[in-house]
Amino acid sequence: MLTLLVKLFKALNSESSTRQISLAIALGLIVGLSPLLTLHNLVILFFVLVIRVNLGAFILSMGVFKGVSYLLSPVILMAGESLLKSPALYELFDALYQISLFKLAHWHNTYTLGALTVGSVLAIPVYFLSRYLIEKYREHIKSYIDEFRIVKILKASKFYRLYTAMSGRGGMS
């Protein structure tokens, strides 16, 4: 977990694209809200591994949003139930359930369908919000935080040595 945190700080402080980090956070939201072993999570994981996103930010956000999913579970269940009970979508889900691939997707489960729906809807604002926050962090907060006494103490710690070793700024001692 410490190395994931170091990788996230490395990504935030590096010159890597804010789009890559924000996309990783948004995709981590979708995977984190839904049950782990679902077809759409495998598709998203394949997508994450194929394109260039920050893997540390993806894994960390997936873990954070897995905890948030317990808080959002009533909303997720309500969204999934309303979609499955919708008369307009009943025939669509009935037809999809006859296809073996969609049986594997578990979209007949209220929580899985609700988590995919809520996660997909929330992923767009989370992407733009995280991108904005990362840009503001890089512009204003990073240089301001470096002047704190606690930061200077932390720079003398093992955490900072691990951080510098991973970022290529120095060696581990």
Question: Given the C-alpha coordinates, what overall shape results?
Answer: elongated
- What is the terminal separation in angstroms? 20 Å
Please give the number of β-strands.
Answer: 0
The share of residues in extended strands comes to: under 5%
Number of helices: 9
Mean pLDDT: 84
Structural class: mainly alpha
- The rounded Rg comes to 20 Å
Percent range of helical residues: over 70%
Q: Could you describe the largest sheet, including whether it forms a barrel?
A: none
Q: Helix and strand string, N-terminal first?
A: HHHHHHHHH
Low-confidence stretches: none
Architecture overview:
It is elongated and about 60 Å long. Helix 2 packs across helix 4 and helix 2 (about 20-35) packs antiparallel against helix 7. The protein has helices at about 1-15, 20-35, 40-50, 55-85, 85-95, 100-105, 110-145, 150-155, 160-165. The relative contact order is 0.15. The protein is built from nine helices and no strands. With about 170 residues, it is mainly α.
Which key features would you list for this structure?
mainly alpha; elongated; 173 residues; 0% strand
Summary?
The chain is mainly α and 173 residues long. The protein is built from 9 helices and no strands.
Fold blueprint:
Blueprint: H1 2-13, H2 18-33, H3 39-50, H4 55-84, H5 87-97, H6 100-105, H7 110-145, H8 149-154, H9 158-167
Helix pairs in contact: 1-4, 1-9, 2-3, 2-4, 2-7, 4-7
